[in-house]
Structures are given as C-alpha cells and as structure tokens.
Amino acid sequence: MTKRRLACLSLCAALAATAVPAAPALADGAASTRNIILGGAAVAGTLLIINHNKKVHQKYAEYDRRQAQTQAAANNAEAAYESERSAYAHEAALVSSYQHEVAIQHQEVLRLRHELALTQGRSNANVAQGQPAFHPLVAGARVSEPGPTRLANVSYGWGIL
What we know:
By secondary structure, the chain is mainly α.
C-alpha cells in the first residue's frame, strides 16, 4: 500500500509542478516542450508503478490460491486417511468377534463329539487300544465299526468349503 501512496504523491507533485507556474508564462517553445515532456514522464512513471504493483499483487494472489489448494488437498487426504483407519478398526473388531464365535463353536463341537463318543461306548475300547476317544475337526471321518457310514456337514459361517 505504501508504493501506491508514493505513486499518488509523485503524480500529485508532478501535476502541481506543471499546473501551477512559478513565473508568468513566457511564449518561448522550450518551456512548453519541457513541461509537456515532464508531464508525460510523470504519467508514464505512474503507469509503470501501477502496472508493477498490479503484477506483484497478481503473483501474491496466485501464491495464496495455490497455498489454499494445497491445504484443501491435505485436508481431504487427512479426512480420507481417518475414514479408512476408522473402517479398518471396525473391520478388525468384526473379525475379532467372528474369531471368538468360531472358537466357541469349535469348543462346543469338540464337547459334543466327546459326549457322543462316551455314550456309544467306544470310549473304553479306543482308550484300551491306545487310540484317542474322538478326532477333533474331522467332519467326514469314517467309523471302523460295521453299519451305515454317517458324514457330518459342519459349517462355521463361511459357507460350504
């Protein structure tokens, strides 16, 4: 703003010097030509200063606009990162709850197989032979005793594998 004021003051001083003559005007051509040249130089100088200030302010405005765009992009990236992080945390919690549910179901399956083995009386024969009483997570295991073969169809929530 000080450059603009300086330009205005210099314009006013130039106009005051040319508009108010200190001595009565003489009819010589040299003084008239000199006054025209000084007035034109003052106007040209003022226009140059104004144009320079305009260019400088355009550069500052462009720089500020780029800074605002960069800040907006950074804010958008930060918001996107926070959104993805939150979504990942929710998915991790969901997976953890599914893993807990599967573990509970697995324990229940093992318990029921153990009870089934005990009620069929195979437990004592298998222990006497040194074999385990049940086979954990063997859904399609064949029983060595004669009779119909029974296959188990177990799903833990993932569909049919």
